[in-house]
Design brief:
alpha/beta; Chloramphenicol Acetyltransferase; 2 domains; 6-stranded mixed beta sheet; about 15% strand; PSBD; acyltransferase activity; E3 binding domain-containing protein; E3-bd_dom_sf
């Protein structure tokens, strides 16, 4: 083992260091060969210099993520619907008595235009085989003229976003309970009835922000009453 390093100091300096509580290891000697003499011993203990703390690194600057571009979200519409059961026997008897080969579709369109008022200024008839035809002022047209227009291959008039949508599903045993509204459309009537059905199930779907519920309920009620009393459709 290595011998401990001895500090050169005079006996008197050592005694003073003991009395004053001074560590000679911290005292620089002024005597020969660095020997510590009495005059080198300070009156008070020598403070041990504190180690210099390493400077903490500056925190890394993380750039804030770029804000995502704002996406415009269309406000949700409040959609409401009402259903009604319609007796078709009176209409079927009326068509048979007239001797025409009309289906109930032309009468559905005329009834919708009559009952919807300004909302039915134009009727957008959705064909069962696909496609659609827009009929302006259907309220002023006879059922035979309406039948001719809905039988055309193209549009009877340019499509209108504001047109009321009317359609019929020729199926049996189905009761509509809900339906959607195309963009820009505020009113729709869907009728479910086979060609020889005795009754029909009708559903009116409307934008409740544009058409009040009591107004929509009145439209489907008048629609049902007109179909069940077809003579009134000719007035």
């Amino acid at each position: 083992m290595n011998a401990p390093l001895r500090t050169l100091a005079s006996p008197y300096a050592k005694r003073l260091a003991r009395e004053r509580g001074v560590s000679l290891a911290l005292v620089a000697g002024s005597g020969p060969n660095g020997r510590i003499v009495a005059g080198d011993v300070p009156l008070t203990p020598v403070a041990v210099p504190a180690p210099v703390a390493a400077e903490a690194p500056a925190p890394a600057v993380v750039p804030a993520p770029a804000a995502a571009p704002a996406v415009a979200v269309a406000p949700a519409r409040s959609i409401s619907a009402f259903a009604a059961t319609i007796e078709l026997a009176p209409l079927a008897e009326f068509i048979a008595a007239s001797g025409s080969e009309l289906t109930i579709d032309a009468f559905l369109i005329r009834a919708a235009a009559r009952t919807a008022g300004a909302h039915g200024a134009a009727i957008r008839w959705m064909k069962a085989e696909g496609g659609a035809v827009t009929i302006p002022r259907a309220v002023a047209l006879a059922p035979t003229e309406i039948a001719r227009l809905i039988g055309t291959e193209g549009e009877a008039a340019p499509a209108s976003d504001a047109a009321m949508v009317v359609s019929r599903l020729a199926v049996k045993g189905v009761r509509p309970v809900a339906g959607g509204l195309p963009a820009g459309v505020t009113l729709r009537i869907l009728v479910v009835a086979g060609d020889d059905a005795a009754t029909a199930e009708a559903l009116i779907v409307h934008d409740a922000d544009a058409i009040a519920e009591d107004e929509a309920a009145g439209i489907i009620t008048r629609f049902r009453d007109l179909i069940e009393t077809p003579l009134r459709l000719l007035v």
